[in-house]
Amino acid sequence: MAGKVYLETFGCQMNELDSELVTGQLRALGYRFTPDAHQADVVLYNTCSVREHAEQKVWSRLGELAIRKATDPGLVVGVLGCMAEREGGALMKRMPVVDLMVGPAELDKLPALLDNALRTRASLLADGRVLGEAGEGGVRRLTSAGQVALAGSSSRRSSTLAAAGDQLEMLDLSRAVSPDDHSGSAYVRITRGCNKFCTYCVVPHTRGAEVHRPPEHIVDECKRLADAGVVEVTLLGQTVNHYRFEHGAQVSVGGVVQPQKGRVYKRTDEHTDAYAGQNVTTFAGLLRRIHEEVPGILRLRFVTSYPRSFGNDVLEVIRASPRVCRYLHVPAQSGSDRLLSMMNRGYSVGEYLEFLDRARAFLHEPELGRPLTVAGDIIVGFPSETEADHEATKALLLRTRYKNCFIFKYSSRPGTVAHEKLADDVPEDVKRRRNGELLEVQNRVSAEVSAEYLGREVTAFVQGVSRREQKKTKRAESLAKAVAVNGAGIGAVALTISASARGDVRARAAEVAGDGADACSVHGAHTEADAGVSAGPVQMSARTDGDLIVLFDAHAGDAAGMIGQIVRVRIESTTALALHGAMAGQG
Ligand code: SF4
User: Fold this and answer.
1) pTM
2) Is 455 left (phi over 0), alpha (psi -120 to 50) or beta?
3) Which atom of ligand 1 is nearest to the CA of 344?
4) 104, 291, 354, 455: most buried, per Cβ within 10 A?
5) What's the DSSP call for residue 379?
6) Which tens digit of pLDDT belongs to each residue from 526-571?
């Protein structure tokens, strides 16, 4: 029983990839997707628990759906991902509007659960049981019949994977790869879960222990993506550089090599991999294999790196592989050793800086047009953070010279060690002030890093039209609709923009009649028509090898064909946020 699905994704790239896989799986079963939740029979939220803010958004969306469901009782609502795992049955009790919940470790079961929920709802509707009693504020409380929660199962992966047969691996392996489903760029998962247990983080609790996918599966997925026209692949893992697969210990179930639990990470000394050459595929080996065996991937990236145990072997492979991007996202989280220890990060500020210096010594070659860029994460207002700790973090930002840094105010997450043991004692106004100060420092550094590109020519992967252009398009669409409503009638050549699973933007010229809503079928997409698009240039957004944003103008007629391509842009001005330039040719 298939319906029209709206899927909204919150949080990290891992969630975006999960949504993409779920979308492919449901599409193959006949489900259609709509970018408008109001048009959907099924509303799914793929949630994130890392920060409180994302969860609050989901609660608010569910509240709105509860009101809608009072008059649309056939609606099926599902919560996927980390929030489903963390909240478990409590979420359904608080929000009876939710029909099904599926944690990240059980996503392979979604199609069966969804089909079941749709059938249950249809049969309850048929015999009139679904309307239930009028609840508070006149909102009907739905019967809980048919509610299904699959959560609390991340521990499944701590049992022998081979015995269970890893169905999540099948979800990755069954990925639908079609030239129409991407905008030249894709994520590929190499590990799931995390063994680090940083005291503030829910990920090890919601996604479970670290599991590494067989290298053959990863390389094959990259090949299939390249065959379908993908030119940029980002390898994903919570601690991506810890990837390793021991071939001697591999187990197959039904002919399928199973993912492997992460083992204790050993190095013979600080920078040498103890396993290298011992029938083990290390992260360095995996990068090298993809680079050599999939030449169609013109840009190979990876996130997120853990600052400890990042060996020279990986740096050497990056240096020797022109298609591996010289970009590292390596969260530091704090400039204070005391706080790093309380966070259980396992390194000191000195060790973090030693790694950055080593990486730059290997990879920063601006004179050859191959600079290394680095991005970081910082948590501000962690329990007990003093002014001295805060000043140490400011100093770290000046020293690290990130091209950008994701700065987050600490929020205590239930289920974590910090939530249980540490008082969230930095007042909100102090967190806000420190956050602002760190942003100011980082903005200055980002502006300086950007300015180094002034007058240079860079190659950049075109992701889509810029945000500014999207806003303009939206305004034009409203105007066009208003004109149509007033009887003028518009059937114009328009730029239809749809955000892909990863949040990139894809544009294609389309003949739009009416509001153009049917032209877009990618989940979570926006459909926008710009009746005036042929009148002037379109501002495009692209990314350098080092992940800097590049903005440049293109002819409206060329814009759609450029997306997913690599172009050369001469940089004419810079800001902290972006490089601005003019196109100088194809990359
Ligand atoms: S390394 Fe730490 S912060 Fe990152 S996912 Fe693992 S536990 Fe969370």
Assistant:
1) 0.82
2) left
3) 2
4) 104
5) E
6) 333 333 444 589 999 999 999 999 999 999 889 989 999 999 999 9
